[in-house]
Amino acid sequence: MKVSDVLTGLFLGLFGLAVLLYSQTFPHIPGQDFGPRAFPSVIGVGFMICAVLLVRQGLARHPRDPWLKLAEEFRSAHATFRFWLVPLMVVLYLVFIDLIGFIILSALFLLFFFLAFGVRSTKALLIAIASSLVIFYIFYSLLHVPLPWGVLEPFAW
Amino acid sequence: MFDILLNALALIADPYVLLVVLFSAMYGLFMGAVPGLSATMAVALLVPVTFFMPPVPAIAAMVTATAMAIFSGDIPGCLLRIPGTPSSAAYVDEAHAMTLKGEAGKALGAGLVCSVLGGLFGTLVLIFFAPVLAEFALDFSTYEYFWLVLLGLTCAIFIASESPLKGFVSLLIGLFVTTIGMNNPGGFPRFTFGSGDLLGGLSLIPIMVGMFAVSEVLRYAISSAKGFERVGSNVGPIFSGIGRLVVKYPVSVLRGSSLGVVVGALPGAGADIAAYISYGLSKKFSKEPEKFGTGHVEGIVEASSANNASLGGAWIPALVFGIPGDSITAIVIGVLYMKNLNPGPTIFMVNPVPLYAIFLIFILANLLMLPLGYAAIRLARTVLSVPRNILMPIILLFCLVGSYSIQNSFFDVGVTLAFGLIAYLMEENGFPLAPTILGIILGGMLESNLVSSLIKSDGHLLAFFDRPIAGTLGVITLAIWIIPLVLRLIRSRRTA
User: Of B3, B13, B57, whose CA–CA distance to B352 is shortest?
Assistant: First the structure.
């Protein structure tokens, strides 16, 4: 997605202002002039300066550019679907990981992507299961990361 | 000194360490050779695996993997005209033109040998220069550190970005990230909005995995690319005539390596920028510049020395000041802290043995590159036929598990996803990632040195210039900011 300098600038300007204002609510350390609010305030002002320069540059160089432009690739519905699949699947993964457990959920996760990316279904299923087991073995058994078992809890080792 | 080296040698003569080096070498060669998987990404994904290792093998794995990945990025660049990592992008057309002339073996052989030479040169400079610099830096106070950090960040903006304005925005994003949480002079929770997960701030590794790995998966998902074209016939002899090449272009090797070390040591600029600059220099100083672009090996010799030399160079400020020279050492610094090898001028006194062990690993990795790199070139056809539609989802899953495993926190996985999306959006719109990373690493240091300097001096800004070194650093930093502005003003006056 291409965002014009003007829109980026407006957004950053507002963000900088918010940071600056919110920083003023941080407490003052008695007897000292420089506490937790100094640095974020500088950053907020920095954002606002950049915002002004970006807007000016955007208006000077590309005055007719649309504020938002979809990249060429997003014109294809299939590609757009594949793109949004990534954040969507990660969020679903986080929601269900404790309930379903690592092994099954990871296999499903991979299977979905393989199919969306055009891998043949039997091959996709086999590789999904194998990879999920291998990664589980590496992280759970070798590296002692407490990955959740979920529904497979009775089989936990 | 001698007994330190002996102890260091004993540390790496351990079969476990050597095995780690061998595996990470193969891993690095693979990650570098597959387009879309970069050296930085290779290191970020290594962190969770090395998390449970002792310090020396953990760092050894990263050193080895990066050296290999920077070389093997040349392979698809030469054979398919797709750079395997950004560091090979500078001379990809040249190398491919050689392939079309049937000289693929010569191009890759030159790249391999010069990578080794450049890598060794960078290592030697690191070994001899870093301790000297460290001794010099021993009596630096908060003023010097403040200017040093600011100078580093300035470099990242003006050298590493096409548009300094966008580089500056990118830096501010990084600095802002470091203000989240309680790690500040007042110990007050900032920008946490009552969330317990944010109290400790955002951690570096999940951010890096997101910015360098998840963003790449997103880019793959949106591109409709299925696979690569098949690699053509045999690459031909690899090492024949290489000796003569190095003898013919000794100046190129030396100039490329020296430039690589310097660019590597500058914060924010890494192997990719080193390769671009030295390819350009090579053309400028060549006796036959008209041959460049038609499959002429000279530029490849210089640029591939430079990109590998920059790796060692980047370690110099990282070890001595804790200021990363490139995005790879940014991750390494995080790992050094985790392993109680805190960077700083005293590191050579407190922890000399593991440190020299790491230096020895540098040398070992570069020597190992010759046989393993040769094998990688021979196996290029197999490596490049790995289907990316299977590889990318597995990498995504690996990112999730990896960022979870650092603190066993699913919150970190969310951070990874968020920064993957942010990095994708930033790169699409021409905002460089390196300044953000640098900002995240250095934000805390900048703030604490700024605030304690201000408190010490009672708010007098002139105190920042009172000490000789601080004053010099300060003037240089300010000059980099002011001179371009003045020049622009003069130019606009003239045209008006």
Answer: B3
- Residue A101, classed as helix, strand or coil, is coil
Q: Tell me the C-alpha distance between B259 and B125, whole Å.
A: 12
Each domain of chain B, given as residue ranges in start order, spans 2-495
Rounded distance, CA B398 to CA B214, Å? 10
Range 440-479 of B in CB contact (< 8 A) with A: 446-447, 450-451, 454-455, 459
End-to-end CA distance of chain A: 46
Q: Which residues are CB-neighbours of A140 under 8 A, at least 6 positions away?
A: A102, A146, A147
The rounded distance, in Å, linking the Cα atoms of B445 and B492 is 38
Predicted confidence at residue B227, as pLDDT, reads 55
Phi/psi of residue A3, each to 5°? Answer: -105, 130
Torsion of CA B266, B267, B273, B277, to 10 degrees: -20
Answer whether B413 sits within 8 Å of A94, measured CB to CB: yes
Q: Considering CB atoms only, which of A80, A143, A147 is closest to B49?
A: A143
The CA angle B165-B169-B172, to the nearest 5 degrees, is 135
Smallest CA-to-CA distance from B263 within B221, B225, B311, B215 is with B311
DSSP codes, A117-130: TT--HHHHHHHHHH
Q: How many angstroms away from the CA of B408 is the closest CA of chain A? A: 7
User: Looking at the complex, does the CB of residue A30 fall below 8 Å from at least one CB of chain B?
Assistant: no
The closest alpha carbon to A58, from A19, A2, A15, belongs to: A2
Would you write out chain A's pLDDT as a tens digit for each of its 157 residues? 788 888 899 999 999 999 999 988 888 776 666 778 888 999 999 999 999 999 998 888 877 777 777 777 777 888 888 899 999 999 999 999 999 999 999 999 999 999 999 889 999 999 999 999 999 998 898 888 889 998 888 888 7
Q: A72 at the B interface (CB within 8 A)?
A: no
CB atoms within 10 A of CB A81: 12
Percent of chain B with pLDDT over 70: 97
| pLDDT at position B275 | 92
Q: How many CA atoms lie within 13 A of B152 on its CB side?
A: 35
Which chain B residues are Cβ-neighbours of A113 within 8 angstroms?
A: 392-393, 396
ipTM: 0.92
